[in-house]
């Protein structure tokens, strides 16, 4: 690296460091849990608690996204992923909800990992901005989640 590059690099943002710390806590908590059923129940409690901590508009959207995802694909297991509500299939992340406040963004995001079966030609969306979760948005989320696990 040149001197200019070294002097301008400031490292991770406070939000990024907080997300990494959340992830480390999640991994430690998961390792301490005993049975698979206990892990699943406690993981869902963790997700619901994280949603309850969110600011008003993010919390409302996260509650709706959680309801739609769990109803559309009951095989997905709720879990925290870097401090965000997420949903996994056989331990592999499929999708997650990122609140706008998480990284001081303009909007919340419904994101999909590369494990989601959303492939469509040579290019497809893996993240969707959410400003409000309307009935039409709920239908779109349900369709995407069903496609992601198919």
Summarize the structure.
The protein is an alpha+beta fold.
Biggest sheet features:
5 strands, antiparallel
Sequence stretches where pLDDT stays below 50 over 5 or more residues: none
> SSE order, as H and E?
HHHHEEEEEH
Specify the overall morphology: globular
Global structural class: alpha+beta
What is the number of helical segments per DSSP (H or I, 4+ residues)?
Answer: 5
Tell me how many strands there are: 5
Task: Round the Cα radius of gyration to an integer and report it.
Answer: 17 Å
Q: What is the straight-line distance between the termini?
A: 45 Å
Report the mean per-residue pLDDT as an integer.
91
The helicity comes to: 40-55%
Q: What percentage of amino acids are in beta strands?
A: 15-25%
Task: Characterize the structure shown.
The protein is α+β, with helices and mostly antiparallel strands. It has five helices and five strands; from the N terminus they run ααααβββββα. Strands 1-2-3-4-5 form a five-stranded antiparallel beta sheet. A hairpin with a 2-residue loop joins strand 1 (77-81) and strand 2. The longest helix is centred in the N-terminal third of the chain and has 19 residues, at 14-32. The chain is globular and about 40 Å long.
